[in-house]
Amino acid sequence: MRVAVPVFPGSNCDHDALHACGTVMGWDTIPVWHQETRLPENTELVIIPGGFSYGDYLRCGAIAALSPIMADVKRHADNGGLVLGVCNGFQILCEAQLLPGALLRNESLRFIHADVHLRVERADLPFTRAMKAGDVFRVPIAHAEGNFTLQPEELADLEARGGVAFRYCSAAGEIGEAHVPNGAVNGIAGITNLKGNVLGMMPHPERAVDPKLGPTGGLGIFRSLAEAFARA
Ligand SMILES: NC(=O)CC[C@H](N)C(=O)O
Questions:
Q1: Which of 64, 81, 96, 103 has the fewest Cβ atoms surrounding its Cβ within 10 A?
Q2: CB distance 202 to ligand 1 below 6 Å
Q3: Cα-to-centroid distance, 51 and ligand 1 (Å)
Q4: Active site (annotated) includes residue 145
């Protein structure tokens, strides 16, 4: 499987994505500077990494969404190619209108780093097919603007079409405001587009995949992608 990881000025989780996909999963993983206009030939998965692209100026992800490489990421997504946006990558995908909604400042107005639990809401996606609906996994968050929001009609539409991939929950899988770290509406931690080939999430699965470095709650997503490509 060939993975492209666009790198913007201020990205820092590109290295986590390269480690997870390259070292841990053994995939051919290529960093791509944001000024490039084409993804590498035969790219199957694009991971838009976390970080602080353009210093989070204007709004997180707003400037990166206009970077030259993003036109080719859109083409890749329009052709059904897989795109995973993590944290700042999720913010960039919303700003690029590849996903609906916006990430506002955390309700606490503070940067939060913590481990959270996520409940799988959709287990039929290329990103989740190795998991089951209702499964709970633990991954880290590290963000200042993870408070996902949508206009009420758009939110109703997102929920009705099953666009919510992951929700924050307790270790036992219970849903509720008490388990939402940032104020995100309906406890939404990750969403997918209509076709299910673009997924954005605030938590960092790519930081929880290597047993040498710590817990491996993020592996379900990478195993799902491996399965999706084995069957393709
Ligand atoms: N870890 C990240 O990608 C951080 C995203 C963004 N800079 C924020 O603080 O919300």
A1: 81
A2: no
A3: 5
A4: no
- State which CATH number among 3.30.300.20, 3.40.50.720, 3.40.50.880, 3.90.580.10 fits the domain covering 2-231: 3.40.50.880
Tens-place pLDDT, residues 76-100: 999 999 999 999 999 999 999 999 9
Q: Which two tokens stand for residue 159?
A: 């929920």
**Residue nearest atom 5 in ligand 1 by C-alpha distance:** 88
* Mean pLDDT, rounded, of the chain: 97
Is 117 considered catalytic here? no
Distance, first Cα to last Cα, the chain: 11
- Contact 88 CB / ligand 1 (< 6 Å): yes
**Closest of 183, 219, 190 to residue 120, by C-alpha:** 190
Q: What is the reported pLDDT for 109? A: 97
Catalytic residue among 13, 87, 94, 169: 87
ipTM: 0.96
**50-77 tens-digit pLDDT:** 999 999 999 999 999 999 999 999 999 9
225: part of which helix (H) or strand (E)?
helix 219-231
Residue from 222, 208, 194 nearest 129 by CA: 222
Q: Which amino acid is at 107?
A: E
| Active-site residue, 179 included | no
Question: Is residue 146 a contact partner of residue 112, using CB atoms and an 8 Å limit?
Answer: yes
Q: Is the CB of 119 under 6 A from ligand 1?
A: no
pLDDT in tens, 136-164: 999 999 999 999 999 999 999 999 999 99
DSSP string covering 166-198: EEEE-TT---SGGG-SS--GGGEEEEE-TTS-E
